[in-house]
Design goal:
By secondary structure, the protein is an alpha/beta fold. The chain is 37% helix and 26% strand. It contains 9 helices and 10 strands. A hairpin with a 2-residue loop joins strand 4 and strand 5 (77-78). It is globular, with a radius of gyration of 19 Å.
């Protein structure tokens, strides 16, 4: 009988540091030893001002860049190996597509890259319906608006029903209806056991959907916890107020 693979958290980050070097003497310490855990099936909002270290953290999780120091495990696997064992969906803050491909071709291509069970078109049809992409289905990617391209990126991330979703500014470019549809999809994913880590500057969106949040500033996590508990503890009514107060106190 195969030994059961056991892990405590979906994401487990310990003492994570990242320094970028420019020349022999110039360096930028992007992450200064952060500790962060995200439970399986949790929606976690990762917040911070520009340049705080959010995107650096996400890129390390995905194995795009290497940490200077520290450990990162995704569902028990070291982050460098996780993509070989897990289904991981990713939406970058900035994305580019093959402009000549039609949306249906792009999604078919992404399904072909990620699917392991051969149900390619079934998966494409599902995300087209989920993200309401029918009107853009026959259009070329280069002709789509920002909002439609963002929907396409989200659809591609969800197409293989990933165990873990890492999303950088996922609501960027979406109209209010698109945001609501996206939240519905996230809630379905959570109910199916998906773990979701996302960064966003849209704090009202985060407040509606996140179970917990972490706030990072200057490469250090300065606040973390359940959204409602943090609001109550700080004596404020909105996440925007909490964020501004936290940033003011950290300076």
């Amino acid at each position: 009988m195969a030994e059961e693979f056991v892990y405590l958290n979906a994401i487990d980050i310990q003492n994570l540091k990242k320094t970028y070097f420019s020349g022999r003497k110039n360096s930028v310490e992007a992450l200064k030893g952060i500790d962060l855990t995200v439970e399986e099936g949790e929606i976690f909002g990762y917040l911070g001002p520009n340049g705080a270290g959010k995107t650096t953290t996400l890129k390390i999780l995905l194995g795009f860049i290497s940490p200077t120091e520290g450990s990162v495990n995704l569902m028990g696997y070291p982050h460098e190996e996780a993509r070989f064992h897990l289904r991981i969906g990713y939406v970058p803050e900035e994305h580019s597509f093959y402009p000549h491909l039609k949306l249906k071709q792009f999604l078919s291509y992404m399904s072909e890259l990620t699917s392991v069970d051969g149900n390619l078109m079934e998966r494409v049809d599902k995300v087209v319906e989920e993200f309401k992409l029918q009107k853009a289905y026959e259009k070329r990617m280069g002709d789509l608006s920002l909002g439609w391209r963002q929907k396409a990126a989200l659809a591609a991330a969800f197409i293989d029903e990933p165990q873990l979703l890492i999303l950088d500014e996922p609501t960027s470019g979406l109209d209010p209806m698109g945001v609501d549809d996206f939240f519905t999809t996230l809630k379905k994913g959570k109910s199916n056991g998906q773990t979701i880590l996302f960064s966003s500057h849209q704090l009202s969106d985060v407040e509606k959907i996140a179970d917990r949040i972490g706030i990072i500033s200057k490469g250090e996590i300065i606040k973390i916890g359940n959204v409602q508990e943090l609001l109550t503890s700080a004596g404020v009514s909105t996440l925007n107020e909490l964020f501004l107060e936290t940033m003011e106190n950290s300076n």
